[in-house]
């Protein structure tokens, strides 16, 4: 049994994962690995609720603002980078904290990526053409027909995720979901998964308030500075795509803000669906005291 432990903190957006990760890192005198796929990008700070400068100083973080939105970076590259960094960190620590709301990235570190078959590249080209001519909804409906499980689980508002699932369905003749979680890779650490949650009304209220804070903190100016790069995949993100619509004159600012809140709430619902598939995650109310969570971790380590 490995003597190294990765404490993975999961949960919906705005629930308090960052604050908990810092408290645990300080208690265990260790570092934090970020598994938030949008906080990787240095140009996206306010809209991704990335740790503040004071939070970054409170504990050593890895994979925060280490990439540009222009970089081609995906979950496979992150898995390799994160495992390499963890191997280094475990030479000096037997506990490391991982925090993030990107379920696929969290799973890639803990369990490894699923093994998908190679498919003809022309399928992706055809799907991209369909996205351009018929819109995302047509692809979503196609996925609903070919793979209802993936339709329910993946981020339907992300065209790349929908296209990826569809190309596997079409190219293999099998549902994308049938290739998920076939076998776990062996890691040289044991993952202890901690979930933070609350009742739906509290989660939604926290999300609405966070969006208001983002706007007061300068989200509009941040998005304006990226307007000429709006076609990059990294910016197809809640908080950015809505304000791009405002900047194009398609929406009022008030409506764009309400759409950010609505889409963030939908995202939180999908996050919970994803994370609750892991039956090994122990869930705490977001207002639980730190001593209770530390006691649980110590008990798990003692076995």
Q: Could you say which overall geometry the principal axes of the C-alpha atoms support? A: globular
Domains, number: 2
Quote the CATH topology of the largest domain. Answer: Rossmann fold
Task: Give the mean pLDDT.
Answer: 94
Radius of gyration: 19 Å
Structural class: alpha/beta
Task: Output the strand order for the largest sheet.
Answer: 3-2-4-1-5-6
Binding site for ATP: 11-18
GO molecular function: ATP binding; tRNA dimethylallyltransferase activity
Binding site for substrate: 13-18
Cofactor: Mg(2+)
Write a concise keyword list for the protein shown above:
303 residues, alpha/beta, Rossmann fold, Histone, subunit A, 6-stranded parallel beta sheet, 13 helices, 9% strand
Task: Report on this structure.
The protein has 303 residues and is an alpha/beta fold. The protein has 2 domains: 5-114 and 182-302, Rossmann fold (3-Layer(aba) Sandwich), CATH 3.40.50; 121-179, Histone, subunit A (Orthogonal Bundle), CATH 1.10.20. The protein is 51% helix and 9% strand. The protein has helices at residues 17-28, 53-58, 75-89, 103-111, 121-134, 136-146, 148-153, 159-172, 200-217, 219-224, 241-247, 253-275, 290-302; strands at residues 5-10, 32-34, 61-62, 95-99, 190-197, 282-285. Strand 2 (32-34), helix 2 and strand 3 form a beta-alpha-beta unit. The N and C termini lie close together (11 Å). The model has no long low-confidence stretch (mean pLDDT 94).
